[in-house]
Write a structure and sequence with these properties.
- The chain is α/β, with parallel strands linked by helices and about 350 residues long.
- It has two domains: about 200 residues, D-Maltodextrin-Binding Protein, domain 2 (3-Layer(aba) Sandwich), CATH 3.40.190.10; about 90 residues, Periplasmic binding protein-like II (D-Maltodextrin-Binding Protein, domain 2), CATH 3.40.190.
- About 45% of the residues lie in helices and about 15% in strands.
- It is built from 16 helices and ten strands.
- Helix 7 links the parallel strand 6 and strand 7.
- It is globular.
- The termini are far apart.
Length: about 350
């Protein structure tokens, strides 16, 4: 290569190198990115602002174990967290569920668990965000002439509504008595008080009644055929707060706040006998002594964590498949959303109100 051509090549290389260095020294401006503040983790139990400032809740309040969602309203807990809740009291759990699925109320409370399975196969899917009671505390109480399973055969048994917790109690009682479903006639009557009234009137033979009413049942001359509360291995969930998937998707903070408020009221029910008894006395129109006895009887019944295992809903599925086999198509894991209560744990709400997490 001639000296002239070699000099020209070196000159071109030097020029390219100089251009590269200049580019490195003066880069093109980067795209502007808005500064992002570091997310602060809430651990003091502070709840988010709800999307809705008003909500409707339906409950079949008929016994003190179902009182948490109503007491949350009477103590002003809902309003404390930014939601004005209108509580509608239904005659039975099935009625409250029907109102929830129809959109007449936004939330259901103290209701049975089967709808969280059956609704999966419909256009209106609804599920649990908390479970207020994990076991059956009913006994099957009967007229004094019904003392054995043989005496029960062919008789009418009262429940609240088809598919509600009382219906499940009857199915469980029949299993325990080694009887078949068609051995009795199930009659929808209403809540605990309505079932007791029907037995007093003699219009039905038996009914599931909460065992905290044992003394009252005995005083009426009624006979206990089977006590389901003695089976501590039986987990049958009763939903503390239920909501439709559509409402929850649009209003996640409102769902969190409602669930938190009911949890707080249930914690008060368990730990503060005086306050709860005073509220129950006003609501149920009973004297202070009876109110205190009623509340004491249910403090050990209600679920302090309001959490559940998916296997609890699998048991519900098994029970109701006897009456409606199609329920076996549902997924017990989709009967409830664990993340709502888990978020209350994560943000410190459980710790703030003194509720246990296990």
């Amino acid at each position: 290569m001639s000296a002239t051509r070699r000099l020209l090549s070196l000159t071109m290389v030097a020029s390219l190198a100089l251009a590269a260095c200049s580019a490195a020294a003066t880069p093109s401006p980067a795209p502007t990115v808005a500064p992002t503040a570091a997310a602060s983790k809430i651990t003091d139990g502070t709840l988010p602002k709800p999307e809705q400032t008003k909500a409707k809740l339906g409950t079949p309040i008929g016994e003190p174990s179902q009182f948490a969602s109503v007491m949350a309203e009477s103590l002003g807990i809902y309003k404390k967290y930014g939601v004005d809740v209108t509580v509608t009291k239904f005659n039975a759990g099935g009625d409250a569920v029907s109102a929830l699925l129809a959109g007449a109320v936004d939330f259901g409370s103290a209701i049975g668990s089967d709808f969280a399975l059956t609704s999966q196969m419909t256009d209106v899917y609804a599920y649990a965000t908390s479970v207020y009671k994990s076991r059956v505390f009913d006994g099957l109480w009967c007229q004094k002439t019904v003392k054995t399973a043989a005496d029960l055969k062919g008789k009418q048994v009262a429940i609240s509504t088809l598919g509600a917790t009382a219906h499940a109690s009857v199915l469980l009682a029949l299993q325990g008595l080694k009887m078949q479903e068609n051995d009795v006639t199930v009659v929808p009557v209403g809540n605990n008080a309505s079932r007791i009234a029907a037995m007093k009137a003699g219009s039905i033979a038996c009914a599931p009644v909460s065992m905290d009413q044992s003394k009252a049942m005995t005083d009426l001359g009624l006979n206990l055929l089977i006590d389901l509360s003695l089976d501590k291995t039986l987990n049958y969930p009763a939903i503390g707060v239920g909501v439709t998937a559509e409402y929850a998707k649009k209003n996640p903070n409102t769902v969190l706040v409602l669930t938190a408020a009911v949890l707080e009221a249930q914690t008060i029910m368990i730990n503060d006998l005086k306050t709860t008894a005073a509220e129950w006395a006003k609501f149920a129109q009973v004297d202070a002594a009876k109110a205190e006895a009623d509340v004491k009887a249910v403090q050990s019944q209600v679920n302090p964590t309001m959490m559940w295992n998916d296997s609890d809903f699998a048991f519900t599925q098994l029970i109701f498949s006897k009456a409606s086999p199609s329920v076996m198509l549902a997924d017990p894991k989709k009967a409830g959303d664990h993340s709502v209560l888990q978020k209350l744990v994560d943000i410190g709400f459980y710790k703030k109100i003194g509720a246990p997490t296990s």
